[in-house]
Design a protein that fits this description.
Elements: H1 6-9, E1 12-16, H2 20-32, E2 38-41, H3 44-53, E3 61-67, H4 75-83, E4 93-97, E5 117-121, H5 126-172, H6 182-199, E6 203-211, H7 213-220, H8 222-237, E7 244-248, E8 253-259, H9 263-279, E9 281-284, E10 287-290, E11 292-300, H10 309-325, E12 331-333, H11 339-359, E13 363-372, E14 378-388, E15 394-395, H12 397-406, H13 410-426, E16 437-440, H14 451-462, E17 469-474, H15 475-479, H16 482-493, E18 498-504, H17 510-514, E19 521-524, H18 536-551, E20 555-558, H19 564-573, E21 577-578, H20 596-603
Parallel strand pairs: 1-2, 1-3, 3-4, 4-5, 11-12, 14-16, 16-17, 17-18, 18-19, 19-20, 20-21
Antiparallel strand pairs: 6-8, 6-11, 7-8, 9-10, 13-14, 13-21, 14-15
Length: 614
Amino acid sequence: MIRNDHSIEGKAILVAEGDESSYREINSILLASGYKNILWARDGGQLLEILRGFYSQLGELGLIILNHKLPNCEVQNICQSINRFDENSRIPVIITLESKADLELPIIPSECKNNAIELISKPINKSEMDSLVHLCLLLKRERDIRREHEESLIDELSERKVMEARLKYLISHDELTGLANHRSLEKSLELSIHHCRNFNRCGALLYLDLDNFNVINDIEGHETGDRLLVSVVKQIRKELDKNQHIARIGADEFCILLEGVNQKQAMDLAELLRIRVDEQHFVTGDKSYHVSASVGIAMLERSEAISRPSEIISHAHQACYVAKSQGRNKIHLFDKRDTATHKLRDDVHWVPVIREALSLNRFVLYFQPIVRLSDGEVSHYEVLLRMKGEGGTLIGPDQFIPVAERMGLIHNLDMWVIENAIDFLAGLPETDSKTSLAINLSTYAFQDVAILPLIKQKLETTWVSASRLTFEITETAAINNFDKTRELVARIRALGCHFALDDFGAGFSSFNYVKNFPVDYLKIDGQFIQNLVSDETDQVLVKAMIDIAKNLGKKTIAEYVENIETAALLKDFGIDYIQGYLLGKPSSEILESGSHQIKEMINQIPGTEPLFVD
């Protein structure tokens, strides 16, 4: 009877038989059934030697056929030894008896009866032996499979425990530095806040931020940046004791929780850490980098009434922000009166307001006339931006423009103004076809490559003449990245638009740059105009600016003109255009062509030839 189950045919079968003829008879039966891996033990000594050889590979031995009268062998001891193996590794045993009478003998120990130990008497029946061997080998295979599954499960459970332990560690620690992370810091802070509130135990939180870390990280790569962080952490740890906990809460930001310290002790340690970081020189390859840190300090005291970890972290962060704004590589103690802190709060308030106003189109354009002194005609209007607040109130640009510049929203406002100003011109009646606008652009507008395509597209789709647009750029914007800005201004002027240099004279470099900057108008900074009548120095400067502009072939505009006396002085100096409350406040509507009010006002300026008023 040939078996086709190769998984059991390959198992070794150990025949422990002292009589050679009996062995040959059993061997013949096994070979006829397809079993080839057959071993022979003549006595108990050989049996034990063979079993020792299989001890570490019990799965390779599938069956023992054992004569109950094997020389030098205690069958009961052998059965008990096999029974002591792991349950899933127990080897089935067929015990051959000399006669059927031996079936009555107590050969199998009671504790071994569940180990598939079978008895068969001589003479051996081939069919009976063949079936019994096959069943025993199938049982061994099932035991092996069960053992493999259990071992696999044990390995899986072990791996899972290791993974769970690692995840548990990572939940509260930073993988790179081994420091506590933000979550762990908050837990420690909760306990410190409890101690402070209930036991009056003071403390402090230091917020340490590396200065210009991003520069090194970007130039040398993140791997080098990681080595720098590890080096800095090592240096900081040397100065801390076991009661001072350090956590990494950002890429290059660390918090140090100090328990049981007063303000002086906290500031002293902050200064020590700043010095230690400042002393470090990080070397990579043939380059050496200097590293510094700004440190913010927030005290944990009952008088502060701090109830949440996020509050003291925020205070320490704001103090660090102030330290950076004061020149970096400094320490600063949190103070609610800090101007920089108020700016941060303003930013938090205004950013969502600005975003909502952009999405809901809550901005409006206002217009202030710029008048030509020679004939009293409105040359063009300066476009001014307002925001609609709750209940229809108007919010001035001084409240939201600085925030937009700091928080990266100014590009959106620039784009909105350009689009809506051109649309406004396109919507004017034919009688106002000569109306022109001057659009203020932010300091950052000329760093945005999208501005030129936007202007071109709007002009093409609205059929508005480019000559009706004048863009005002501040002196600061013109000087910053001078070559790139000048190139973009030239390309916009090539479309037919005009340019005015706003706040002219505000900086000492104005006269040097204006020679090479392609603008049509120079708009004198209002600080020189407001006190022009009473300030002789301003008069000398304004006169010089107007003369320089004339020599360069550029027109001049004076803003903040609020009275007749200022207008008269400017006329004597040769100013071309004036703008201010004297001639008109910003309004959501433009004036009628040839405004009588403006011409009547111009007629009041001493030395002006009377203008005809309809």
